[in-house]
Amino acid sequence: MKKLKDTIMRISPFVRPYRIAFMGAMVFIVISTSLTAISPKIEGLIITSLTKDIIGVGTGTKGAFVNFEYILRVLVVLACIYLITTITTYLASVLLTNSIQNTMKALRNALQEKIKKLPISYFDKNSYGDVLSRITNDIETISNSLQQSFSQVINSILTLTLALGMMFTINIKLALLALLIIPLSYLVSKFIVSKSQKLFHKQQKALGEMNGKVQEIYTGFNEIKLYGKQEDAIKDFQNINEELFNTGFKAQFISSIMSPLVSLISYLSVAVIGVLGAVYVISGIITVGNLQALIRYIWQINQPLSQVTQLSASIQAAFAALERVFEILNEEEEVPDKVDSTKLEKPSGNVTFEHVRFGYNDDRILIEDLSAEIKSGQMVAIVGPTGAGKTTLINLLMRFYDIKGGAIKIDGVDTRDMKREDLRSLFGMVLQDTWLYNGTIHENIEYGRFGASTEEIIEAAKIANVDHFIKTLPDGYNMFLNEEASNISQGEKQLLTIARAIISDPAILILDEATSSVDTRLELLLQKAMRNIMKGRTSFVIAHRLSTIRNADLILVIDEGNIIEQGNHNELMKKGGFYENLYNSQFGKQEVI
């Protein structure tokens, strides 16, 4: 219960800017509900008049005529009440819809802003599919539930209160008897909610896991087909789908029991009050019209209780979704940039690692004491076995992760003293895993530097040896790439990412196995182009194929997070150490042959 209260308190800031619309909706709901509560007693006046005039109930004599003038006046009053009720209900719905949708918009914006501030480590620990599910499915669940349930819940509470109040004006004893419906219904509801809420949370979690699995399967669709793992993928999906089915079925089934149980309590109350009310009518304590009004009020009490219980599944799903959304909003953000940050106006690209210490977890340090000095314009190759920490070094350089100790400096300025945006603008990156977005080839290259002219984009494409290929395409630079950029080859995608890096004109280049997806002939052309664009720029090259880095000015050999050797190719080969063994493991046999 405390968790639900905390969740409600967390969403209140998102509602506050639209409180006027909410308050206006509440006013109209109060008016509508109050008029609805009054109408049964006014309707009872007609029944009382008819029974008194026609059969003399409550008077002891048989009536001789019907007072049509009185009944007509009552009907006119009822017509006015019903008309005002309809208008106020409509106005309440419009205002509530507007405020709820604006609140959801604000919540989506808050999520978007939060995601921009989350550290990379968050996305390492959580699947993209689950994060996407929280932003889309969970927000939509909250929106639908608020839209369908909020006004009905408020209406139900007011209806319940007013109906009970009107019953007390008719007969206190019968009203007290009807009042028992509420605590009995509450106890039943509380018991069922305590069982079903946990299941609804599991249901939303299972939905997130299923979205994550679907995203994973479709991202690796070709690999799954290649290795004949379709059955395994289907089985994994079916297991998650079965879990979602089981939790969803249990949650919906248990919550659906609530409505018939509450209705049963109301039916028993109607039977008891109907019998006692009939006795009171015969005794002349209440009129027939008031008995009819009492029965109507019992149904007015039952209706909101039934509505709330029927909506309980939607409400509980919404609370579970809210908890998942606020789990993201509660996540610890990246360390904020310093207010008095430094910006390099004319970076030259000198990079220094000073006794760097880092670990993804505090209890598992990967890099103990790493030091290196890279001068402007040098080509630096980073080599080492898988898992040695090569990519980690680049992540630290770009401050995707913050180091635990020591310092990383660019032109003598600690990267932690720079804004992340300014720091990362110094780099151009070409990764092994290419990323292009749905748009034209021209737009994808321009992504490296918005506002670049067509001539500059073509020149960048020529340097990357991709201009000729682009011109052979149906629409040339205006050809649209689809969502996965699958309408061009992997090698061609790599060339476009290289052109994008060239157009950004960075001070420092990072090439992570940048030529791994092209054929040997194209690799030679690319290496020549890379040598041209690396002139005057500091370049970090991560390569598993050591043939690509023989001409590097400096080679950093990393093992278990630390630089164990450094120097150029010839120097390291003469040492006869780790690098020589690594190099000979790739080329030793060929040289013997």
From TrEMBL:
The subcellular location is: Cell membrane
UniProt entry keywords in alphabetical sequence: ATP-binding, Cell membrane, Membrane, Nucleotide-binding, Transmembrane, Transmembrane helix, Transport
Topology of the protein relative to the lipid bilayer: Multi-pass membrane protein
Query: Which parts of the chain span the membrane according to its record?
Result: 20-38, 70-96, 153-170, 176-193, 264-286
Which CDD domains does its entry note?
Answer: ABC_6TM_Tm288_like, ABCC_Glucan_exporter_like
GO CC annotation terms, alphabetical: plasma membrane
Q: Which Gene3D superfamilies match?
A: ABC transporter type 1, transmembrane domain, P-loop containing nucleotide triphosphate hydrolases
Question: Pfam families of this UniProt entry?
Answer: ABC_membrane, ABC_tran
Transferase listed as a keyword:
no
Q: Which residues form the ABC transmembrane type-1 domain?
A: 24-317
What one GO molecular function would you report for this record? ABC-type oligopeptide transporter activity
All copies of the ABC transporter domain together span 351-585
Write down what this protein is called.
Answer: Putative ABC transporter ATP-binding protein
Which taxonomic lineage does the organism of this UniProt entry have? Answer: Bacteria, Bacillati, Bacillota, Clostridia, Eubacteriales
